[in-house]
Structures are given as structure tokens and as C-alpha cells.
Write a structure and sequence with these properties.
Two copies of one chain form a homodimer. By secondary structure, chain A is an alpha+beta fold. The first copy, chain A, is about 35% helix and about 30% strand. Chain A contains eleven helices and 15 strands.
Chain lengths: ~400, ~400
């Protein structure tokens, strides 16, 4: 791993929120100086207490710490849950000599249960005692936020702006193979760039629109989905602006896309990761809506699991997305072979395309429209019998 | 079966569109006198040729015959497909001494292939030679429209209006276990009531909103979905109006709901049929949108397959439906046991509820909102590993 952004220390520990001792369940990310912060949150009307807390605080300045627990989502817990989130922020602030208002909180795991606050308090103390900047610290922080993920999802970027090195690191969690309780997606990005919170919010929103909003496993939006970004300015210099700010935003988007893609890629039950390129649309939003309709169709997902270049399922899933288009201008390629052109199927070597699908975990689908010049890249999984088994039979 | 509506004759035959000789693949429904007709069609932008033809002709008067083939959907077939649908209508009209404009057409099956018009022409001749009014004729007509269905889906109603007996019979097709190509849903209702086409269209639209629009297997809207209704007035009397028309409409809705429900109930791979009652909403449309979000969530569907009373998956699926509601007013019952009240889970006998889910094919879910007085009843299936196997592995 490249070096961490300057001015941050991290840790991840086990404090008994989860049942298994070999799993970490609490992470702390501390900025040694006040950082600006921005956030993007679930649009679910049923949202968890930490979402309520962070949403009220971001975008904003002066944050010193983020505390994240796994194993309990603190969702559907009412006023007591909100009080627990506030207390969790206070405890995290206290260990770095800051107020509760200078902390942000994320939770993921079982919903409908109250947080075990004694364990959380002990855990925050333990995590504070183990803060550091090594690869091992980053790895531990990455593990403390996981639920059913097979391993930590971490990536870094660095770029030089105005002669200064800017570093960005991101962690996320979320499993293609959705666990027993929730499909929560959490992301935390931290950078030593100097970016005021208003700019940071604008750049994060744009980055999420090309990354975390472009992945789908099963279309189920959770109560806890959150992506936060911290920028502490430890790299030095005045606030980024103009071309430098744009370059930082581009790097942030690339980083978010890199870690977001790890979510659908992490499905043990999944046998394919599908990259959908939706091109020639009137807007990126239109392209994303079509992508989501195709990505969430069980008929498309099972066809891909079965290695079937089934153009009919893909084209018809686009047709009910609710986005207007001229069907006579639609084209489709799977693994770079053209199957459909100008609104009609064309002859292709079906067994050869099926073979490329069966023999590769990566599948590339390009669906083109003649409606404009906007496009989106979207990632999803196939749907396998193993997915169903894991999500139906976990009680037995 | 009760007697057919007066003035209709039916048949269903095999003419070689399907490969298997033991499956019927063409049905004819003839009205001995001109009938009014109404239709409701797929909203998919990619729609089949018969949909284009029927949509242009309904609502309208003077129809004599409906011809339906299975095994080939005549979809994604361009101008030649539209010409074939027009020719199919002409052939069906000709055998009853009517013009092509007096016929309606439906097709279901494989998409992207041209109709085998010689077989269709021969089939229409064969079907015309076998028209009749017995239970066997009705059964054959019901079988000629099927694809992966396990058997015909037929129901009848009768009611007395103004001293006259009115009969209504409906056929439909559509399989919970979606076949290799399309999840097409077709419905045909015919009655001897005297109802002008404008009234018929209004009543059909309302009936479909409470029946065929309230079922979901996998949320994939096909290129061919069509529901038609014919009313030939053979029961006698002047056009229905006022309370009589409303009573007819109520009966039409009940009949449509009865046959529509047979679609999710017909899943070999499915182990549960789920009745969703969404109550206390500001509008029926809002209730239906929430129902669809819950019904299409793979996490909800797999939980039901696994016999898990997972309130979190159900409540959170409602939360991302895009319909505003106050989460603090939400309540949930599964199999009449209360799990969630005023926006929070409540203690319940989890193993007992799980047992009722495991031991019964029928599952009842009631999700209540404090937003208004409108409600909807919606039917869906669970999601099983067998569903995935059938839809992924059919090539091998």
C-alpha cells in the first residue's frame, strides 16, 4: 500500500459486538487536525440513527474522528438509537480530546437491536490505544467495518497538485452476497488535500454518481448506506481551486469507482461480475436508470449466470426502465460481439459468445442508444442458486 | 365449468409452431356476432407486432375473432413482423367470413424469430374446423396460448342484471417460473354482456389495475403483455348502464383477479405464493408502487423462501419505493402475527411465525401505513434456487 494521507491515524479492533472473536467490529479514523467533511446517504425513508446524525452534520468543517462499528446497524431503534449514536460520537471525540460534534458515526449489521453501549465504549478506548499509520493499521480499520464481505476493500491514489503530493485513501464494505440482515454499503474516503466542505460535497456527490450509485447487487437499498469523505489539508497549501480542484475531483471519482466495484466483485455465490456500458443517452441520469433496470432484472442476471447471450432479456429490460428512446436505434454487444443492431437481432456466433461468458468471470455488456452523447459505466453481478441458498437458508 | 358466455365458440390446436407435438400452439375465439373490444398492453418501449396491431384497434366495435399463437412472440421482427400480424388477422377473419380489421391477434413465445406463416395459416384453418362450446373446447383454447405454464388458467363468473343472466369467462397465461425466453402475460376475457367499447375500456383498465397490474414474479415486463376483453351483447338487452354497469365491472375485476393470481401461483420452482396487503395509503397507486417494491426485492423473496419473518427486509423495501410516508406509523403482520408497530419491531414468537411460513404454501403479509384510506392486494412469489436453475441452466 502507498503511504497514508498525512495527518491521519487508524485502528480496527474486536470489542464483542459481533459474536465471532476472529472478526473485528469497530474502527476509528482520527485526523490530527480539523478536517472538512461531506457525506452521501441512503435515500431510504427508513434510515438508521447514524445516518440521521451524519446527515445533519455534513457538509461541515472541523471534524476530528470517525467511528464505525459492524455487527449492529443501530437501525429501527427509535429515539434511544439516536441517543446511542450521539453518545458514540461523544465517546469517539473524547479519546482525541474533541467534542462529540467533531465526530461522525457509521454502523452496519443486524437491524432492530439496540447498540451494546458498554462494549462500544470499551471498544472506542481500545481502538484509541491502537491508532497508527502502518499498512497493518489500515488493514485492521478496513476489517472493522465488514459484515459478510470476504475481505477488506481498500484503495489509494496520489497526485501532485501545485508541487505538493496529495494522497487519497478509501475503505468500503458491502457484499455481493448479501448477508442475513442488510445489504448496507459503507464508504469512507480520507485525504490530506485542502478542500473546503462545500467543494468537497459537490465533488463527492459527483464521484458517488459515477461509483457507488453505479453498482447493484440486488437493488435493495439499505437503511444505513453512507459514504463519507474527510479532507484535512495536511498536505499543505491553500484550498484547491480551478484546475487543481477538478484534478482532485477526478482522482476522487476514480478512487470511489475502484472501491465501489469491489462490492459486486465480492460475491462468493456470484459467478460473474458484469460491466454494463450504457451509451448514447440524452443524460447520464437516463443512462443510469436504464443500467439499473438491466442490472436488477432477475432474467438478465440468471441468463448471465447460465452463460447465455440473451439479447431479448437485456433489450426488453431497457424497454421498461421508464426512459424514452427509439427502439429502432438500439444496439447491443456482449463481450465485444455485436448481437443486435438498429432495433433488431443480427446473426452471430452464439456458441462462441456463450463460451466467452462461461469461461470468464468478467462479462462486458454494451447497450447503445441513438439519443445523445451521455453514457454511464455500471457494475452488477449475476444471480445464482448459491445466492438464493445463502439468503434463504441462513436460519437453518 | 359453468356454461360459456352465449354466442362464442372456441378451439385450440397444434400446428407445429412449437416443437413438441403434445403441446397446443394456436387458439381461436370466435364471436358469432360483432363484439366490442378493449385492451390493456405492455408499457415496454420494445413491444411486439401484435401489440402494435391491437393497440391501434382498441377500444373499438365490430370484432368477430381473436387468434392467439404460442411458441413464437413475433417480437423484434420489424416491418415483416407487423405484416405477419396483419396477415394473421386477415386469415383469422377469413375463416369466419369477416375482414382482417374485425380480428385481434396475440402471440407469445420465442422473440426475434419470424412467424412460420404457412404453419399459422394451416393452424387457423384447423382451429376453425374444430370450434365448439364444450368444456373440452374451452380447455383446448386455454392450452393453445400457454408456454411454460403447468396448465390452463381459466375462470368464469355469472351474474343477473335486469333479469338477464350475464356470463364472463377469462383465460390467461404466464408462468411464475419464467421460461427461457419471455415472461409474457396474456389474458383474454369474453362476455355476452352488452357493453359499448368506451365503457368496456374504462372497466378493463380499472380491473387490470386490481389484478394483472397487482402481480409480479420477477419484475420483468415483457414485449407482448396484453389483456383483451370482448363483449358481444348476446345475453340481450340494451347497453348496461348505472348500477348494472358497475356490477358488471365489479364482476370483471373479480374474474381478472382470480385468473391473474393463478400466474404467481403457478411456479414449480416457487415454494410460496405471497399475498401482500398494503393498507392505509394516500392512493391505490401509492399502495401498488410500495407493493411492487416489496414484491420485487430479492432479499424479501429469499427470506420468504427460507421461512424467515424478516421484518427488516420488508420495511426497508417499502422505504425505497419512492412513495413518501412517515416511518413512525408503519406496521407489519405476517400470517396475522404483528411483528412491527408504530415504526419499530415488537416482540413476537419468531419460531412460531417461521413455522407457519415453512408449513404453508400461502404467506400473508400486511404492511400498514398511516397515510390514508387506500389499499391494494398484490400477489407475488418467493425466490428459490430452483427458479435460478431453471432460468440459468436451460441451455445445457
Amino acid at each position: 500500500m502507498p503511504p497514508l494521507p498525512q495527518g491521519y491515524r487508524l485502528s480496527g479492533i474486536f470489542c464483542g459486538i459481533k459474536k465471532k472473536v476472529d472478526k473485528l467490529d469497530l474502527s476509528l479514523i482520527v485526523s490530527d487536525r480539523p478536517a472538512s467533511a461531506a457525506g452521501v446517504y441512503t435515500q431510504n425513508l427508513v434510515f438508521a440513527a447514524p445516518v440521521a446524525l451524519d446527515r445533519a452534520r455534513t457538509p461541515g468543517e472541523g471534524f476530528r474522528v470517525v467511528v464505525i462499528n459492524s455487527g449492529n446497524a443501530n437501525a429501527c431503534t427509535g429515539d434511544r438509537g439516536l441517543g446511542d449514536a450521539v453518545e458514540m460520537a461523544r465517546l469517539a471525540g473524547a479519546v482525541v480530546g474533541a467534542s462529540g460534534e467533531e465526530a461522525l458515526v457509521m454502523s452496519t449489521g443486524v437491524i432492530g437491536n439496540f447498540l451494546p453501549m458498554e462494549k462500544v465504549a470499551t471498544g472506542i478506548q481500545m481502538a484509541a490505544a491502537q491508532l497508527g499509520t502502518s499498512d497493518a493499521h489500515l488493514d485492521a480499520a478496513g476489517r472493522g467495518i465488514l459484515t459478510t464481505d470476504s475481505g477488506p476493500k481498500i484503495a489509494s491514489r496520489s497526485l501532485t497538485l501545485g508541487g505538493r503530493e496529495i494522497r487519497i485513501t478509501g475503505l468500503c464494505k458491502g457484499a455481493a452476497m448479501i448477508g442475513p440482515n442488510m445489504a448496507t454499503m459503507l464508504g469512507l474516503v480520507f485525504t490530506d488535500a485542502n478542500v473546503p466542505s462545500a467543494d468537497l460535497q459537490r465533488l463527492l456527490t459527483a464521484a458517488v454518481d459515477r461509483s457507488f450509485n453505479c453498482i447493484s447487487v440486488d437493488g435493495h437499498m439499505s437503511t444505513n448506506d453512507t459514504v463519507l469523505v474527510l479532507a484535512n489539508g495536511a498536505a499543505g497549501g491553500s484550498p484547491l481551486s480551478g484546475a487543481d480542484l477538478a484534478a482532485f475531483g477526478k482522482s476522487l471519482t476514480e478512487l470511489c469507482a475502484e472501491i465501489a466495484r469491489m462490492i459486486p466483485a465480492d460475491g462468493e455465490g456470484c459467478t460473474h461480475i458484469v460491466t454494463l456500458d450504457i451509451t448514447g443517452c440524452a443524460s447520464a441520469e437516463a443512462a443510469r436508470t436504464i443500467a439499473r433496470s438491466v442490472a436488477d432484472s432477475p432474467l438478465v442476471k440468471t441468463a448471465i449466470a447460465g452463460g447465455d447471450p440473451n439479447w431479448g432479456r437485456i433489450v426488453s429490460a431497457a424497454g421498461y426502465a421508464g426512459i424514452p428512446f427509439d427502439p429502432a436505434k438500439v444496439g447491443l454487444r456482449i463481450n465485444h460481439v455485436e448481437l443486435y443492431r438498429s432495433g433488431a437481432p443480427i446473426p452471430f456466433d452464439d456458441p462462441a459468445v456463450a463460451k466467452t461468458m462461461r469461461e470468464n468471470r468478467e462479462v462486458h455488456v454494451e447497450l447503445s442508444f441513438g439519443e445523445g452523447s451521455d453514457s454511464i459505466r455500471f457494475w452488477t453481478t449475476d444471480l445464482t442458486a448459491e445466492y438464493v441458498r445463502l439468503n434463504a437458508d441462513y436460519r437453518t
